[in-house]
C-alpha cells in the first residue's frame, strides 16, 4: 500500500486532483477532513478544533487502510493542519507538531493558480497564500520530508502529479 499526501495552501487543486489520481491508478481518496469539519462547524477555529480535525483525518485514513487498497491519496494530513495552526494562531501547536507525518509521497501544490472562495477558505490574498505555502514548506523541512512540487496550470498539475505517483508506484500507466 502506498500513501500519497496532497498538501498546499487553499485553492491549489488538491481536492480536484485527488479523485483524478485514484481514477487513473485505482485506490481510494481520504477526503480533506478539515473541509468537512468546517462545513459542519464553521471556520471560527480554536486550537481544539484543529486537534479534532487531525484526529478525524487519522481515523478516516485508518478506515481507508482497512480495505487494503494499493493506493491511498490523502487530501492533506498533519503537516497542513500544523500550518493552519500557525496561520490562525501565530505559533506552532506542540500537540499537533507531535503527531507524525507518514505518507510515502508528498505532493506540494503551489499557490500559483487563482484562489476561489468556496465558503470554507480564509486566506485569498497573494501575500497570505505565499505565507501559508512557506509555513507548509517549513513544516515539511522540520519533519525531513522531501516533497514533489506541483505547479502551473491545471493540466500541468495533473501531468506532474501522475508522473510522481507513477514513479512511486513503479507504474508506467
What does this structure look like?
Helix content is 52%, strand content 13%. It is α/β, with parallel strands linked by helices. It has a single domain (2-169), classed as Rossmann fold. Helix 6 links the parallel strand 4 (105-109) and strand 5. It is globular, with a radius of gyration of 15 Å.
Tell me which CATH architecture applies here.
3-Layer(aba) Sandwich
* Residue runs with pLDDT of under 50 for 5 or more positions: none
SSE string, helix = H, strand = E? EHEHHEHHEHEH
Q: What share of the residues does DSSP label as strand, in percent? A: 5-15%
Helix content: 40-55%
Overall average pLDDT? 91
The top level CATH class name:
Alpha Beta
| Order of strands across the main sheet | 2-3-1-4-5
| CATH homologous superfamily grouping | P-loop containing nucleotide triphosphate hydrolases
What is the domain total for the residues? 1
Structure keywords:
single chain; alpha/beta; 5 strands; Rossmann fold; 52% helix; five-stranded parallel beta sheet; 173 residues
What's this entry about, in short?
The protein has 173 residues and is of the alpha/beta class.
SSE blueprint:
Layout: E1 2-8, H1 14-25, E2 28-30, H2 33-41, H3 47-66, E3 71-75, H4 78-89, H5 94-97, E4 105-109, H6 126-142, E5 148-150, H7 154-169
Parallel strand pairs: 1-3, 1-4, 2-3, 4-5
